[in-house]
Design a protein that fits this description.
Layout lengths: L8 H12 L11 E7 L4 E5 L12 H11 L5 E8 L9 H11 L4 E4 L2 E4 H4 L11
Parallel strand pairs: 3-4
Antiparallel strand pairs: 1-2, 1-3, 4-5
The structure holds tetrahydrodeoxyuridine.
């Protein structure tokens, strides 16, 4: 039986900042980093990866989601998204959908008002259950 890992928000923020330092963002010059705790205790992270066709930019959450799946999957428990200074960022609409897919309603996102669940971050979100 897997026990729920303890959430170390400071460590997640540190990992998110480290990820932002790997960002490829020559167009916006706005590095973003994100880190997430997985239900098995792993920490996955990601940075934004831009390209010359601006609209096809991959957000940091896309990169983190790829690492999540490629490193064995699992469910996200807690996520921190930051800019290069480590200030908390609000994930964009598309990325809220990614977080919801891999963390469900219980996933906690760190906001300036403390951790908030995906039920609040993406109210009445469309998810896997809606396809049943
Ligand atoms: N960005 C993210 O990486 N995640 C978000 O949730 C918001 C926006 C990136 C995309 C782009 O590279 C830069 O921030 C400016 O929009």
């Amino acid at each position: 039986m897997m026990s729920t890992p303890v959430i170390d928000w400071e460590l997640l923020r540190t990992r998110a900042i480290a990820a932002s330092q790997l960002s490829y963002s020559p167009y916006s010059k706005f590095p973003v980093g994100v880190a997430g705790l997985v239900n098995d205790g792993r920490i996955v992270s990601g940075c934004n990866v831009e390209n010359a066709s601006y609209g096809l930019t991959l957000c940091a959450e896309c990169s983190m989601t790829s690492e999540l799946v490629m490193s064995g999957g699992g469910k996200l428990i807690a996520v921190v998204c930051v800019d290069k200074k480590g200030d908390l960022l609000s994930p964009c609409g598309r990325c809220r959908q990614l977080l919801f897919e891999h963390g469900g309603r219980e996933l906690l996102l760190l906001t300036p008002d403390g951790p908030k669940s995906m039920s609040e971050i993406l109210p009445w979100g469309f998810g896997p259950e809606d396809l049943q």
